[in-house]
């Protein structure tokens, strides 16, 4: 939108009072007249850039609010990872984030397996946070115990397909603590529905489990369980997470602290 037209062939120049940059264009010919248009000075450009950053931050926080199972997971970051976590696994996890566009394109997820308390959930949630920060993609962290509970509580009032879609439409889905849920026929069917939906949508999935990878690889007597494991092997790169049981360490520290207090 023009804000100034030359008068008697005299050209006036306008400058921002704060940054002193010119805020009008050179005269442009249009229909035998010369028009001058307003241009953005450094103040305006900086303000626009700050607003973009603010909007991006708000969008990422909205994604985080809908991502995690608990609020504590919002703060999980690679730089705060337990020092006992294998450095090689940490390096591979950060590389997964670094190359996530390629992983997403090829529908490659991760299977983080290892002993209880080794840091699998922390590592998976750190990946989630980094991907939200780096790419602003929608990430969701869920566990099957929670999913099965939601499906059962919803009963006939819940559209199950819509509920499954709400979980499986995320750019990255993290399924935590796979294997702790009840292995009923109904449970296995719902687990397969979620994992197969990710497979059909060609979207990457990260799974954490206390199961041994050899147990997942071997042939299963239960056909449905075999189909689930087959999908996981096809979709996920296995990474064994080795670390000291963080929960035992934290529990021991708390008990020692309490013991010292009552011994005063």
In words, what does this structure look like?
The chain is an alpha/beta fold and 264 residues long. The chain has a domain of 182 residues: P-loop containing nucleotide triphosphate hydrolases (Rossmann fold), CATH 3.40.50.300. The protein is 49% helix and 15% strand. The protein is built from ten helices and eight strands. The strands form two sheets. Strands 5-6-7-4-8 form a five-stranded parallel beta sheet. Strands 1-3-2 form a three-stranded antiparallel beta sheet, with no helix packed on it. Helix 2 packs parallel to helix 4 and helix 7 packs parallel to helix 9. The protein starts with a strand and ends with a helix.
**Structural category:** alpha/beta
Strand order of the largest sheet: 5-6-7-4-8
Helical percent range? 40-55%
* Radius of gyration based on Cα positions: 27 Å
**What is the CATH superfamily of the domain at 67-248?**
P-loop containing nucleotide triphosphate hydrolases
Could you please say which CATH topology of the domain at 67-248 applies here? Rossmann fold
- By CATH reckoning, the class of the domain at 67-248 would read Alpha Beta
Strand content: 5-15%
Query: What characterizes the major β-sheet?
Result: 5 strands, parallel
Oligomer: single chain
Average pLDDT works out at 87
Protein name: ATP-binding protein
GO molecular function: ATP binding
Domain IstB-like ATP-binding: 60-250
Keywords: ATP-binding, Nucleotide-binding
């Amino acid at each position: 939108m023009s804000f100034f037209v030359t008068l008697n062939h005299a050209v006036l120049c306008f400058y921002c009072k704060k940054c002193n940059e010119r805020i009008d264009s050179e005269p442009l010919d249009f229909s035998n007249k010369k028009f001058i248009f307003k241009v953005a000075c450094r103040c305006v450009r900086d303000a626009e850039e700050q607003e973009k950053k603010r909007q991006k931050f708000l969008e990422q926080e909205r994604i985080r609010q809908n991502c995690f199972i608990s609020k504590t997971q919002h703060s999980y970051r690679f730089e705060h990872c337990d020092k006992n976590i294998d450095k090689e696994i940490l390096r591979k996890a950060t590389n997964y984030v670094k190359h996530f566009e390629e992983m997403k394109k090829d529908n490659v997820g991760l299977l983080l397996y290892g002993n209880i308390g080794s840091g699998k959930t922390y590592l998976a949630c750190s990946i989630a946070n980094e991907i939200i920060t780096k790419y602003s993609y929608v990430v969701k962290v869920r566990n099957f115990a929670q999913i099965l509970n939601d499906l059962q509580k919803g009963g006939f009032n819940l559209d199950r397909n819509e509920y499954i879609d709400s979980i499986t439409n995320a750019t990255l889905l993290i399924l935590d603590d796979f294997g702790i849920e009840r292995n009923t026929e109904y449970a296995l069917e719902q687990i397969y529905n979620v994992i197969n939906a990710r497979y059909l949508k060609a979207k990457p999935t990260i799974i954490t489990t206390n199961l041994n990878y050899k147990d997942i690889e071997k042939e299963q007597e239960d056909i449905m369980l075999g189909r689930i494991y087959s999908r996981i092997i096809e979709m996920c790169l296995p990474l064994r997470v080795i670390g000291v049981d963080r929960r035992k360490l934290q529990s021991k520290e708390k008990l020692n602290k309490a013991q010292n207090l009552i011994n005063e």
